[in-house]
Amino acid sequence: STEEALPALLEEAGGLWKQSFPASAYREDAALGSGPAARRPGQGAAPSRMFSYRREGGGAPGRAGTARFLAQHNTWGFVATRAARGKIQGMPYGNCLLLSDGPINNSTGIPFFYVTPKDNTVTDLLRNPMASLTLPEADGNFCRKNVIDPEDARCARLTLTGQMVTVPPEEVEFAKQAMFSRHPVVRKWPRSYEWFFMKMNIEHIWLQSW
User: Fold this and answer.
1) What pTM, to 2 d.p., does this model score?
2) What SS3 string covers 107-151?
3) Domains and CATH numbers, the chain
4) Could you tell me which residues come within 8 angstroms of residue 54 by beta carbon, excluding any fewer than 6 positions away?
5) CA 40, CA 53: separation in Å to the nearest integer?
6) What is the DSSP letter of 187?
């Protein structure tokens, strides 16, 4: 299994650890008396490059291409708002929401959401529309295929900040295509929850990509 193979990969001279981290990582490990460098002092020198994995089908090269790839292929994201209710009023509040930036063959880079006013996050947004949206690479196959923890720096993360607004009537049909094509199940969600569409007007983009 993957879990059984991982320790061997980390200890092998040509394994995952050696391929991915610079020589300084081993020197620090040796000083601490732990990790592969301490257990295997005879290992060869680490390669000079740092994170060396390539994304297959990752869209255009470079940071902009990585950002658009994450926006297109993530089906959910972590939305942070400022709480507008109760004892946590004014404090940060986070929630995971389904999203889509368009039908799979018509990516826009703009995240659309299908939400209900019964959701605390939506209550916050109707009071203060500023929010941040984090899209992790954990949603794809890259990290899993390369036996990398989603919190590892090699798994890119994209954070978008801006205003969350109700989708205007002229865009509702496109929002339906975007959400329902990626998340068919939401069509069956109870209508009594008064679902409607929101989107983020992006003002800032922050990408973690090693």
Assistant:
1) 0.69
2) CCCCCEEEECCCCHHHHHHHHCCEEEEEEEHHHCCHHHHCCCCCC
3) 62-208 (2.30.110.10)
4) none
5) 24
6) G
Q: Which positions of the chain have pLDDT values less than 50?
A: 1-26, 28-58
Contacts of 90 (CB under 8 A, 6+ apart): 82, 83
What is residue 209's predicted lDDT score, i.e. its pLDDT? 81
Quote the pLDDT of residue 136.
87
Pick from 90, 77, 95: which is nearest to 128 by CA?
90
Q: How many angstroms separate the CA atoms of 73 and 142, rounded?
A: 12
CA distance 5 to 69: 29
- Whether residue 111 contacts residue 91, with contact meaning beta carbons closer than 8 Å, is answered with no
**Residue 66: Cβ-neighbour burial (10 angstroms; 0-12, 13-18, 19+):** buried
Please name the amino acid found at residue 127: R
